[in-house]
Automatic annotation (TrEMBL):
Main location: cytoplasm
Keyword check for Acetylation: no
Pfam families: EPSP_synthase
Organism listed in the record: Pedobacter helvus
Name of the protein described by the UniProt record: UDP-N-acetylglucosamine 1-carboxyvinyltransferase
Record-annotated Enolpyruvate transferase domain positions: 8-421
Keyword Cytoplasm: yes
Annotated residues for binding of phosphoenolpyruvate: K22, N23
GO molecular function: UDP-N-acetylglucosamine 1-carboxyvinyltransferase activity
Pathway assigned to this chain's UniProt record: Cell wall biogenesis; peptidoglycan biosynthesis
Binding-site residues, UDP-N-acetyl-alpha-D-glucosamine: R97, D319, M341
Amino acid sequence: MNAFEIIGGKKLKGEIIPQGAKNEALQILSAVLLTEEKITISNIPDIKDVNKLIELLGDLGVAVERINKDTYTFEAKNINLEFFSSDTFKAKGGGLRGSIMIVGPLLARFGKAAIPKPGGDKIGRRRLDTHFLGFEKLGAKFVYDQKAEFFNVDATNLKGTYILLDEASVTGTANIVMAAVLAKGITTIYNAACEPYLQQLCKMLNRMGAKISGIGSNLLTIEGVTKLGGTEHRMLPDMIEIGSFIGLAAMTESEITIKNVQYDELGVIPEVFKKLGIKLERRGDDIYIPSQKNYVIDTFIDGSILTIADSPWPGFTPDLLSIVLVVATQAKGNVLIHQKMFESRLFFVDKLIDMGAQIILCDPHRATVNGIDKKYKLRGISMTSPDIRAGVSLLIAALSAEGKSTIYNIEQIERGYQDIDTRLRALGAQIKRIDGAGPSH
């Protein structure tokens, strides 16, 4: 197990560039399977989940070429469908939630696919029913092999249809869209997710020759085509990183400029941080956060306690709730954090309480934060990261805390954040990586 050792309480200063969006990458990379022509993708984040998917594409027979640090070309001319039944695929596919995303494109182009039971973050029951129900509506047939723990899928005759999704799942919508672009006839998807990442995927598919309308809304219409071609695509910056850096600046009283954020694609994210009292300003396509000693949480108009909750886009993304919670611990005022979309994502608050934060965990979905207005600093402790987002929240807490903190299981953080220690050191943070470390208890 590897760890980060952090000496907190230092003000940071400088510019930081967000990486390419992890959640967009998993969709966009899977889409290369829809054509045998070359696709060039840039601003790909160099992180474990994405690199594993690129490796999986290579194992499937995709010709992958790395042009520079963040740009690759993909040519899915010779796909080896036998790879599906191999132990290698089961081992690699089962350890990566993103592997579910290759099913839609493979069903569309080849009429069959297989998928092991997916793994990934332990943040409650993240069902895949939406994907499977959508494929079934298009005409796919699923057979679950209980012994091998594999789903085998037959989709030799996909036909367009009306689909009302049971939830506005981002990955579910993306997967069904990729299956539908080559299906016969017209597919209508209602209650579709409309995140910027999904809009990016639909725009890319249209450049490849797909006919998708309603992009950016929750009603997508897809007119099936017989073939798709190559294209070039650049990924958006990662909005979760951008939100994390806003929170980091506030907690550490730092003056930070976040570069090239594609501000218009950030939705309500800047406004939610402003509700916590954080000053930030848009400068062209950058966000400038001045050093501020204190920040005061808004109340509702009638004076009642502010609630910040997640909801499907264009609501506030669940991936930033843990960041908001951490930032609120040092604010002046109170806030109720309501995590509606996943259970058990708030279970890291016990670590923050150990650091001196005043938080009441009401139930698996809600926590009330009593901001201490920086009257005293959090104190450094040893802790273990439970998942990607909680890990970064604890990292931000540690950077603002007094004394030394050690965070174990940083593999979870590194699944989603590229070279995070190097980039933070460039801002003046005292953080070092310790390989092979393990908690003493």
